[in-house]
Amino acid sequence: MKGNGRKLVIVADGEFPSHPVPLRIIRDADIVVCCDGAIRHLEGIGRHADAIVGDMDSLDSERMEKYSPIIHKDPDQESNDLTKSFNYSLALNPGSIAIAGATGRREDHTLGNISLLAEYAKKSDIPITMYTDWGYFTPYTKDCSLRIPPGTQISLFGIGESVKIESRGLKYPLKEVVFDNWWKGTLNEALTGQVELDINGGIVIVFVLYT
After folding, report:
1. Please, what is the end-to-end C-alpha distance for the chain in angstroms?
2. Does residue 1 form part of some domain?
3. Are 123 and 34 in contact (CB under 8 A)?
4. Residues 129 and 185 in one domain
5. Beta bridge partners of 31
6. For the whole model, what pTM was predicted?
7. What pLDDT tens digit does each residue of the chain (211 aa) get?
8. Do 93 and 147 fall into the same domain?
């Protein structure tokens, strides 16, 4: 694993997960970076934060005082708290970054946060994964091989112009399909324990449903 090998989790202030997979990832993380308002969710599961990042518009005065030693205020209005937390996290040189609590509640926030994975993938080659209560999103900038159980539901989203993918191991094979619309790679299924994707141009965000 690249970086220092530590597992870092960013907890965003969307719908806090209830599924055991993202909850386990939060609890087992070596470092937890929290978007400002999400600290109340961490308090609810008894998990401490190593840093609280954001413009602090969602943090009440009592928590501002309580967590002052770990608060990293960033007033930049050109980026959201998730991106501020991601940039802060990269500076810690982690081995991987997981994101939880970035979906749910409002669909516009959900779509915006998922699309940001493409931008994050451009900034670093460490593994980046966004976990929800249904599955997980992972961005890929180059050919990849995914080890997932046969029968697993999987969707692919091309980000960028003229993204082409050739696949092996999917129920509905992709061969030079141009991903000029988000629906084109959705609702597929793994046939074997390994799915291989050859990516030509752009970035592909892969969603895998929990089994």
Report:
1. 25
2. no
3. no
4. no
5. 8
6. 0.92
7. 455 789 999 999 899 999 999 999 999 999 999 998 899 999 999 999 999 998 888 888 898 899 999 999 887 777 888 999 999 999 999 999 999 999 987 888 899 999 999 999 999 989 999 999 999 999 999 999 999 999 999 999 988 777 888 899 999 988 877 777 778 889 999 998 999 999 888 899 999 999 8
8. no
